[in-house]
Amino acid sequence: MPKIIENLREKLLAEAKDQIERNGYENTTIRSIASACGVGTGTVYNYFASKDVLIASFMVDDWQGCLAKMKAFPAFDRRAFLENISRCLKEFIEAHASLFYDRSAIGSFSAGYQERHGMLRGQIAGVLEPVCGDDRFLAEFAAESLLCWTIEQKDFDEQYRMLSRLFAHQ
After folding, report:
1. Could you tell me if 36 and 83 lie in one domain?
2. Are 20 and 58 part of one and the same domain?
3. What's the confidence (pLDDT) of residue 111?
4. pLDDT tens, position by position, 92-108
5. Cα distance from N-terminal residue to C-terminal residue, the chain
């Protein structure tokens, strides 16, 4: 009878996240994740079709939490609202720095980059709508700016000065 490991999916996700942080994208393998969790590689493939699907799974879970936090921020003070959004993005990017700034990870994920980036931008734009009104272009542009500037590690004061120029034309 096969052994049953409770919450195996969650354990695999946590182990993959930990190994990527410690060893980087290239040195993390399905075999190393399986071994650390005490299961065979085939068992991991029962849950995830590939290492990239496994990584995407924990990133999506983390992104959903980040997005929920951003949606909960009050928008009555534009600066505070945007600063909270920027802080959430920064926390997400820092939590996954080993993927955002790792050349082998970037190379592996580059095929679907534009589609995923557009999806993130659209979700962030949806969160920004309370401070952008009905101007979807402004929301998309501000979302793209926040996302790129946060990845570039610009501090919020600099981001806000540039965003203020966008909102001045509103």
Report:
1. no
2. no
3. 63
4. 999 888 887 777 777 77
5. 66
The reply to whether the predicted model has a pTM over 0.90 is no
Check whether 133 has a pLDDT greater than 70: yes
- 75 and 144 co-located in one domain: yes
| CB 70, CB 126: distance < 8 Å | no
- Based on the domain organization, do 84 and 164 belong to the same domain? yes
pLDDT in tens, 25-37: 889 999 999 999 9
- The answer to whether residues 124 and 70 touch, using CB atoms and an 8 Å cutoff, is yes
**d(Cα 27, Cα 53) in Å, to the nearest integer?**
16
Shared domain for 96 and 20, answered yes or no, is: no
Question: How far, in Å, are 111, 131, 148, 149 from residue 155 at the CA level?
Answer: 30, 20, 12, 8
Residue 76: C-alpha distances to residues 30, 73, 81, 82, 126 (Å): 46, 9, 8, 11, 16
What domain count does the chain have?
Answer: 2
Whether residue 59 is found in the same domain as residue 16: no
